[in-house]
Sequence to fold (225 residues):
Amino acid sequence: MNNLILMTVLGLSSGANAAISLVNGDFEDGTVTTGWDAFGGTGNAETTDPILGSQSVVSTNSTFAQDFSDANDVFNFQLDFAVRLTSVNSTQRIRLRGDNNSGDLITMRLSSGGIDTFSGAWGQRVAESITAGTDYFVRITGTDLDSGDRAYTVGISTDGVTYNTGAETTAFHSAGVGTGFETIVLDSSSGGAVWDGVSVTAVPEPSGAALIGLAGLGFILRRRR
Fold:
């Protein structure tokens, strides 16, 4: 019975991650820009040298954006994407924003020394030697955006399995507490970049999951008595 109690608490408290329905996040559906707002630039076309699958999107002096969650703010999330730079000049940006492309939560850039984020000034979040022509997999994990404890981590990988992840940080751009992540922007103002495999996963809030686990434990104890 004790093992059953432990398994119940662990199972209920862990929760299951829920995928967010990004439209054409892998750029495999329809034309390469299906589901994305694309503006500016001259290189908005599929590439014959994708990172994942059969299509990627190439941006040259251009921006791609998608508001993926009109109905619900996402306060706990994991964002994954793959990127290859044509040149490394710190102008390729990834912007995490609130509803309808408003409220800058996290603004990142790829530099030769790693990934930086902006919070009044640029600061390095993870150190990594980034070179042109190399495929990288980037992961941003954000927690508790609806509270004063909000924070996030940034990780980078060359194989999509083993990540070099920086320390947890509270270096947000400008959006205030309570602004949920609803819009992703892929921006290449110069130099060019290939983007692929964009996905967003909603992570259950730890506090809520723990309460469910405790409720399950209480039910089992009552049954034992």
About this structure: The helical segments are 2-14, 206-224.
